[in-house]
Design a protein that fits this description.
The protein has 262 residues and is mainly alpha-helical. The protein has twelve helices and no strands. It has helices at residues 4-25, 35-56, 61-71, 83-107, 109-119, 134-151, 155-172, 180-186, 193-199, 204-207, 217-221, 251-256.
Amino acid sequence: MQQADVIRLSVFLVVLLGCAIWEWMTPRKALTQSKWQRWLNNLGLVGLNSLFLALLMPLLAIEAAIAAEKMQFGLLNHVNLPLALEILIAVALLDLAIYWQHLLFHRVPVLWRLHRMHHADQDIDVTTGARFHPIEIVLSMWIKIGVVMLLGINPISVLVFEIVLNASAMFNHSNAKLPLGLDHWLRKLIVTPDMHRVHHSVEVKETHSNFGFFLSVWDRLFSTYIAQPKAGHEKAVIGLPYFHTAREQWLDRMLTQPFRKK
C-alpha cells in the first residue's frame, strides 16, 4: 500500500481533467461566476486540506485499516470472503456511512455551519466536488477511520472506496450534459450530475435532498430523493441565499464562513 498516495493523486488528476473537458465541451448550465477565479480558490482549498490532513491526522483511513487487520479488529476481519466480494460489500457499507454522514452535516446546526461552505459555491462544476472546509475534512476522516475499524475493512477496499468516492464526487458535480435517456438509467444505480445538481439548488427542500455521493439507492431507500429541480436545470439557482457575493468565493472568505452569521 506504499503507492496509495500516488494512485489516488493520479486518478484524481485524470478524472479532474476528463470531467473538465467534458463540461467544457457539453455544458449543462451557463456559469454565473468567473470560472478561473472559482477554480483558483476551489483547487487552492484542495491543497490546503491536504496540508491540514498531513499536519493534524496521526493516521489516515488506510493506516487504520492496516492496524485493524493486524489486530484482527472489526467485523469483516472475522469473516472469510473472496476479496472481490469483500471489496463490493466494503464499498457499499462505506458509501452508506458517507450518506448518513452527509445527512448529519445537514441536520445538525454546528455541522451545517461547516458544510454550508460547500453549498455557497454560486456555480457547480467539477471543482465543487472537492470544495470542503478543512475542519469538515478532518472530522470526516475521523468518522471514516471509525467506520473502517469497526467494520474491519481491509486496506485494498479502503483504497478502492477512496478512489471511487473522489471520482464520483467530481463526476456528479460536473456541469456536464448527459443524454436524458442515459441519465435515467444510470441514476438507478449511481448519482448522476443532474441528480446531484438538485442538492445544490437554492430551494431549501432541494438543498436538503439527494445526499448520496456514489450509489443512488440510499436516497430512494430513505426517502430523501428528489428527481428534478422545481425550476428545471437551466433555470435552477445554485448556491445559498446568503454568502452569495463574488467576494465570498475567495479562499479567505470561504474559510471564515462557518464562523460568521448569514
